[in-house]
Amino acid sequence: MSDPAFEYAPIGLVELENRIIRRCNLQFARTFGGNESDYRNLPLLHLYPSVADWERIGARSLQVMRDTGYYTDERVMRRRNGDLFWCRARGRSLTPDDPFRHGIWSFSDISEERPLVELTKREREVAILSCRGLSAKEIGVELGLSYRTIEAYRARLLEKFGARKLPELVAKLSGTPL
Length: 178
What we know:
This protein has helices at about 5, 25-30, 50-70, 120-130, 135-145, 145-160, 165-175; strands at about 10-15, 20-25, 70-80, 85-95, 105-110.
């Protein structure tokens, strides 16, 4: 039986079971590319930039959903053609005792609001640790690099994000999984 409210919602919707797409609506298929049938029984992993991102975001969202039953963030996702884009994801578990067993999620393309900035793996690590409030010396210890090397990475990040100072960079990065 078709559900027009789900099917024609103006936001991308998916029904997930254990992080596998059971059904999606038209807007979800438009956002990620292809047809609704292309996503049926597809592991959500295929829409993440990497397995590491899938694991990291999954672990964080599972913990939050265990506490609240709900999760939201902004993250980089991958379209069917391989293009990366910024996406706002929101999910609600229908099985609070086992949050990933069954849930409804929405996905919105926010790439016009937040252009994608290409970062190297090391730049991403430095950005994440900077957002956590670590000093250049603390980041250097954690990554096994000198604090001067960390300052060089931060300088590149400032340039890439068009920020003048570290607090401005952190403000641009904060609240966004990298």
